[in-house]
Structures are given as C-alpha cells and as structure tokens.
Amino acid sequence: MNYKFLIMYLQFFIIEFRLYITIMGNWKHLDIEPERDLISIGALFELGKVKRMYDIIALSPTRVINILGINHERYTIKLTNPEKFSVSEILRMAFVFNVDPNFIFEVIQNETEKTILEKIEKQRKKLK
C-alpha cells in the first residue's frame, strides 16, 4: 500500500473538511470568492483574538463599510456599541469575513452582556 498517497489524501481531506466547517454556518449560495484580507479578520474571530468589536476598527474599515453599506461614522458607533448592529449587518459581516456568525455574536454578547442586563433590570424596576 502506498502510504505517502494515503497521507496526502488525508491531509487534503482534513483541509477540505476544515474549509467546509468554517463556511459561515452553512451558507447555501457561496458563489462569491471571499477576499483574503477580509478572511484574515474572520480568522481573528475564530482564534478568539477579537475581544471587543472595536478591535477590528483598523482592519480594512473602508472596504468593510462599503460592503456593509453603512457610513464610517455609523460603523464606528456600532463597533463602540455593538448591540446597535442589526442581525442583517452581523450576517453580512460573517459572510464577507468568511466566518460563522456565531463567533461575531459571541463577541457581541460577551461585550454587551452587563449593559443589557442593567437595562433589563432598570425596566423591571419601572414595572414594579
């Protein structure tokens, strides 16, 4: 048996499987080839390097805001207050970053959890 061929085949399979796994929550129509510099932003989310959404402000902001269709000021505000991102914007980010949207949602949830809980508690007190 040719073990070199088997090893090469397994390495290829692992790479293909990893690409399949990382295709953003199983997008059905992935006809657009992702851009390398934007994929690198997605890799930062996957590796857990992005702790706050504002961490990505310096990474291709002009290209990102053009693709998302929002102006620079609103993009900056949303990175500072990530709960202001719409679900559609988060999904578009995930698509262009070639990352599962759950990575982005996780960063946003971790960053905004305290603020959201405080707002809920404040509303509960108003209702009493």
Give a concise summary.
By secondary structure, this protein is an all-alpha fold. The chain has helices spanning 3-21, 36-46, 61-68, 72-80, 87-97, 101-127. The protein has one domain (34-127): 434 Repressor (Amino-terminal Domain) (Orthogonal Bundle), CATH 1.10.260.
Helix content: 55-70%
Basic shape: elongated
**E-strand count:** 0
How many domains? The number is 1
- The low-confidence runs, each spanning 5 or more residues with pLDDT under 50, are 20-24
| Strand composition percent | under 5%
CATH topology (fold) name: 434 Repressor (Amino-terminal Domain)
The chain-level structural class is mainly alpha
CATH class division: Mainly Alpha
Spell the H/E element sequence: HHHHHH
Specify Rg, calculated over alpha carbons: 19 Å
Distance between the termini: 75 Å
| Number of helical regions | 6
Biggest sheet statistics: none
CATH architecture: Orthogonal Bundle
Mean pLDDT: 81
Q: What do these coordinates show?
A:
There is one protein chain. The radius of gyration is 19 Å and the shape is elongated. α5 packs antiparallel against α6. It has one domain: Orthogonal Bundle (434 Repressor (Amino-terminal Domain)). It is 66% helix and 0% strand. With 128 residues, the chain is mainly alpha-helical.
Topology:
Elements: H1 3-21, H2 36-46, H3 61-68, H4 72-80, H5 87-97, H6 101-127
Helix pairs in contact: 5-6
